[in-house]
Write a structure and sequence with these properties.
This protein has three helices and eleven strands; from the N terminus they run H-H-E-E-H-E-E-E-E-E-E-E-E-E. By secondary structure, the chain is α+β, with helices and mostly antiparallel strands. It starts with 6 loop residues before the first helix and ends with a strand. The longest helix is centred in the N-terminal third of the chain and has 29 residues. Strand 6 and strand 7 form a beta hairpin. Strands 1, 2, 3, 4, 9, 10 and 11 form a seven-stranded antiparallel sheet that branches. The protein has two domains: about 55 residues, no CATH class; about 160 residues, Umud Fragment, subunit A, CATH 2.10.109.10.
């Protein structure tokens, strides 16, 4: 009387058939690759390169963007020359919040290098214009005032970050509009930001992403708060 094979033998047979199928597929693929002309191989390499470039561009446009910090306007939070990651996903479903460190464009400077963006929104831009790393200190609807260098938001004093000090200047009491964000550098003594007459409050579309990590140099790897 013939009995069924044991489960172990059945499992081995399944694996053996799968392995044989994989080897056959690999052999067919190798034969096709060998029979390709030089032109076909070159076009294959070009296709792979184009695909990689497109993926990198899509990641930069929609997900994250590496940015090099240039200057000392965000000391001591960020140092000159550090590479940070700006995530764009946090602003897919919500607006920038007070105290977020962001990368942003300044009004009128998007086309300064001759390449304009796709005007869907700031997070979908593809351009090489200058971006700035700043902190959002006030959001739409906030009352903001700077008196003798001291920042007040909704009547409350916002302390100088890291005790860096502030430029002794005034900004009269004002209420931000429904699409106005006030950004400043943490090193308030040496930051060109919304306090300047050629910048002022920026719009939501000028804010590109939220800075979350310092990634280079590796010895400085840390979260950004």
């Amino acid at each position: 009387m013939q009995t069924d094979k044991r489960p172990e033998e059945k499992q081995q047979n399944v694996f053996a058939r799968f392995w044989a199928w994989r080897k056959k597929r690999a052999a067919v693929a190798k034969k096709k690759e060998k029979n390709k002309t030089l032109g076909q191989k070159i076009w294959g390499w070009v296709a792979v390169l184009v695909e990689a470039v497109v993926i990198a561009m899509l990641v930069r446009m929609f997900i994250l963007e590496p940015i090099r910090v240039d200057g000392t306007s965000m000391v001591n939070t960020l140092q000159d020359g550090e590479i940070v990651l700006a995530m764009k996903t946090p602003y897919w479903t919500q607006n920038p919040q007070r105290n977020d460190v962001v990368i942003c464009h300044y009004p009128g400077r998007v086309n300064e290098k001759g390449i304009g963006p796709f005007n869907l929104s700031a997070m979908f831009r593809l351009d090489i214009s200058t971006v700035f790393v700043k902190r959002v200190v006030a959001v739409p609807g906030d009352y903001l005032q700077i008196s003798n260098g001291h920042l007040y938001v909704n009547g409350e004093l916002v302390a100088d970050p890291e005790k860096m000090g502030s430029v002794p200047q005034d900004f009269e009491l004002t209420r931000l509009g429904e699409d106005e964000y006030f950004v400043m550098g943490d090193n308030r003594l040496w930051s060109h930001d919304s306090r300047a007459s050629d910048v002022g409050p920026i719009s939501r579309n000028d804010i590109v992403g939220k800075v979350t990590q310092v990634v280079l140099p590796f010895t400085n790897w840390r979260a950004v708060e």
